[in-house]
Amino acid sequence: MRTVAPSTSARTERATTAAPPPAALAASYETVSSGTLTYRGAVVVSNTGGAQSDRWTLTITVPLLATVQGVEGPRPSQSGTAWSFSGSAVPAGGSTRVVFDVLLDVGSLLGATQPLSCRVAGEDCAGL
């Protein structure tokens, strides 16, 4: 009968850590207040991922001839009925808020209380 002696050489093991999950941006819309030809909206852009996001762009679409003003957050740019807000990075688990007033034209959707669409990072905003 043959006996095998246990190995005396040290085993080297490497500890590996998984990379944190990537940034995951999502947004939610809420109407803060509304009047006959105006409403104030707010969008919270959240990063639910494990890494800081890069810059982000939120785009809302409003009725024809409506204007966006009174913005709290990134300054918007307009292309037709689309208004875009570009912001800086959002840390993992963090969020940022954009607040804006929409002034409606009499011929547009009288009494509208939210944008026609709202998107960030290719995803629709919740609450719309």
UniProtKB/TrEMBL annotation:
<protein>
    <recommendedName>
        <fullName>CBM2 domain-containing protein</fullName>
    </recommendedName>
</protein>
<dbReference type="InterPro" id="IPR001919">
    <property type="entry name" value="CBD2"/>
</dbReference>
<dbReference type="InterPro" id="IPR008965">
    <property type="entry name" value="CBM2/CBM3_carb-bd_dom_sf"/>
</dbReference>
<dbReference type="GO" id="GO:0004553">
    <property type="term" value="F:hydrolase activity, hydrolyzing O-glycosyl compounds"/>
</dbReference>
<feature type="domain" description="CBM2">
    <location>
        <begin position="18"/>
        <end position="128"/>
    </location>
</feature>
<feature type="region of interest" description="Disordered">
    <location>
        <begin position="1"/>
        <end position="24"/>
    </location>
</feature>
<dbReference type="GO" id="GO:0005975">
    <property type="term" value="P:carbohydrate metabolic process"/>
</dbReference>
<dbReference type="InterPro" id="IPR012291">
    <property type="entry name" value="CBM2_carb-bd_dom_sf"/>
</dbReference>
<dbReference type="GO" id="GO:0030247">
    <property type="term" value="F:polysaccharide binding"/>
</dbReference>
